[in-house]
Specification:
single chain, 588 residues, Nucleotidyltransferase, domain 5, 3 domains, ten-stranded mixed β-sheet, five-stranded mixed β-sheet, 20 helices, 20% strand, globular
Length: 588
């Protein structure tokens, strides 16, 4: 055994992943343990979980630790920009402290895990190289064009590269202060969504608008002939003044990145408590349209430079499922690979893969075909959680107050009864196997419902989610039936692309059909998740519809991790049924 550990530390979406003999064994975000979304800091719980999965529980058995930060990267460029913009120096000191934490990781690791810091081999990996490695080295491609796009990481926002075998060659970078991700964040904040990671809300809002403001927004992010872009820095404060950022042991906090000039251009900003008007919807649609133009230009350029038709894509912007779903139609590509945790959490995996294949020179042997790399709790752990309960003891099968507890060991009956309850309009918590790596619930930590009911979105928001009404819910569909219901049949097991739903099918599945006739689908394969595939197949036999509504198992919190957290979520919401392993708990 030769484990290689990778970590994303002191940055949003802190995480850890571990390889053993080049194969991914475990990957998990720290937020699953701290219960704070996008948690930034030292991922101690995630590291401990990864070490447990390789059987050692100790860093002493780890060959090397890859860290997806390179504090010394581009020091001259950083110094020159800081000196030319002295108003930003005060806020820059906070980033210096953050980088110092990264630089002292050996001591932090040794202190937390009782290891000898002098024996630890810690390998810093530039942030975007870790992104590239996370996509290319676990793709099925021997050679591919590679592109990463996000806010900023190690003073870079975009990287074009080519991957060949176990080598990565960087072709181009877009450096600070230009960033397509920051452009999207600025308009997201302007539209009244200030929390870290709120960009996905604006993607949902875009379907309700018309792109009336495209010309104005294009001026903010002018394109260049080489496929890259700049920013009109009159509208952004990150260079001239700096931006307040908090990355220490909690939810990341990012101050306003836009200047008053943006309100002069677009009108007053929307406050989070203000009503969402048609103007805001149109701005969201315009933002998405301009983003897609610049993003597609980058993809076309890296394809032109490499003369390759296979693309490995990563970075926070690779989570823009609307843009991803249009690439095959707009760019001359044969294949696209985006791994399940394409955002910053995925740099933990990328750092481990970079160390394995570049630093250590090992050949590739892993392809990511599913996302089930997180913690698993066995039947005994589930029964203990049920026995302890949250509001009393549910240790025995039978009626306990307002719930009924039953053990259903026959898988056929478990699947049949669950499918029947979904078809009857119940909302079901589905907790099985290992949790998902990445931000999407993909059939192991999911809440499931009937996609045929036009009122199901309202029911879910009333009973559990309590989120904005414009945000869509997603379908999980049998992989082999994708082309019958969507205009593209290309599989997407990680729910990271949006495809148009066939017009004749939209009326049959209104709960997962967005306002523009699209759906952010997950294709479910029998080989990678046989139980979930069997459940959806049973639902199809009952209803004629080969898909279910799938949303993450949580209530304004990170996706549930332990059986106790799943049970607690069930009890404090109005979920009708929860299926944890072979244990079924339903409301009377």
């Amino acid at each position: 055994m030769t484990p290689v550990l990778g970590i994303n530390a002191f940055h949003g979406d802190a995480a850890a992943a571990v390889l053993d003999d080049g194969l991914l064994v475990a990957g998990v975000e720290e937020e699953r343990f701290t219960r704070i979304k996008h948690w930034a800091g030292f991922p101690e719980g995630a590291i401990r979980q990864c070490l447990t999965e390789v059987g050692s529980g100790s860093l002493d058995s780890v060959r090397a630790v890859g860290v997806s930060r390179l504090p010394r990267a581009y020091l001259a460029r950083k110094a020159a920009l800081a000196l030319s913009h002295p108003r930003s120096l005060g806020r820059a000191l906070g980033r210096v402290r953050n980088l110092a934490q990264v630089a002292s990781l050996e001591q932090r690791l040794a202190r937390s895990f009782g290891s000898d810091s002098t024996r630890l081999r810690v390998v810093p990996v530039e942030h975007h190289l870790a992104h590239v490695a996370s996509a290319f080295f676990c793709s099925p491609f021997s050679d591919a064009a590679c592109l990463t796009v996000d806010g900023f990481g190690d003073f870079v926002s975009t990287m074009m590269a080519v991957g060949r075998g176990n080598k990565i060659e960087v072709l181009d970078r877009v450096h600070f202060p230009y960033s397509l991700g920051l452009f999207y964040t600025a308009i997201t904040q302007y539209l009244g969504f200030p929390r870290y990671g709120d960009e996905y809300k604006v993607m949902g809002l875009a379907a309700y608008g018309e792109p009336r403001f495209v010309e104005r927004l294009r001026a903010l992010v002018p394109g260049r002939r080489d496929g890259t872009f700049a920013l009109d820095l009159r509208y952004f404060r990150h260079l001239s003044e700096g931006v307040d950022m908090t990355w220490d042991d909690g939810e990341p906090v990012l101050g306003d990145v836009f200047t008053p000039a943006l309100e002069e251009l677009l009108g007053p900003r929307r406050r989070p408590t203000d009503e969402i008007e048609q103007r805001h919807k149109d701005l969201a649609a315009s933002l998405q349209a301009v983003y897609e133009e610049r993003f597609v230009a980058l993809v076309r350029e890296v394809v032109r430079r490499t003369r390759m038709k296979k693309l490995a894509l990563a970075g926070g912007c690779a989570m823009n499922s609307l843009a991803n779903g249009r690439l095959l139609e707009q760019v001359d590509l044969d294949d696209i690979f985006i791994q399940a945790a394409a955002g910053d959490a995925g740099t933990a995996l990328g750092a481990a893969l970079y160390v394995q294949h570049v630093a250590l020179g090992a050949p590739r042997s892993f392809v990511m075909e599913h996302a089930y790399w997180g913690p698993k709790y066995d039947e005994a752990a589930i029964r203990r959680a049920v026995a302890d309960g949250v509001q009393g003891s549910y240790g025995l099968d039978g009626v306990h107050g307002d719930v009924i507890v039953e053990t259903v060991e026959d898988e056929g009956r478990l699947v049949s009864e669950t499918a029947r309850s979904i078809a009857a309009g119940e909302v079901v918590g589905w907790y099985q196997g290992r949790s998902e790596w990445g931000p999407r619930a993909l059939g192991n930590r999911s809440i499931l419902a009937d996609p045929r009911r036009p009122d199901m979105r309202d029911i879910l928001n009333l009973k559990i989610k309590r989120r904005e009404a414009f945000r869509p819910f997603a379908p999980s569909i049998l992989e082999e039936r994708t082309g019958d219901w969507f205009t593209l049949s290309y599989p997407d097991p990680f729910m990271i692309k949006v495809y148009p739903i066939r017009p004749e099918k939209r009326g049959q599945i209104p709960a997962v059909t967005h306002a523009d006739g699209t759906g952010r689908l997950q294709t479910v394969s029998q080989s990678t998740n046989p139980l979930y595939h069997r459940l959806i197949s049973q639902f199809e036999r009952m209803t004629g519809v080969p898909l279910v509504l799938n949303t993450s198992f949580n209530e304004n919190e990170p996706i549930v991790n332990t059986p106790a957290e799943a049970l607690d979520c069930f009890l404090r919401t109005k979920m009708d049924r929860i299926v944890m392993g072979s244990t079924v708990i339903s409301r009377r």
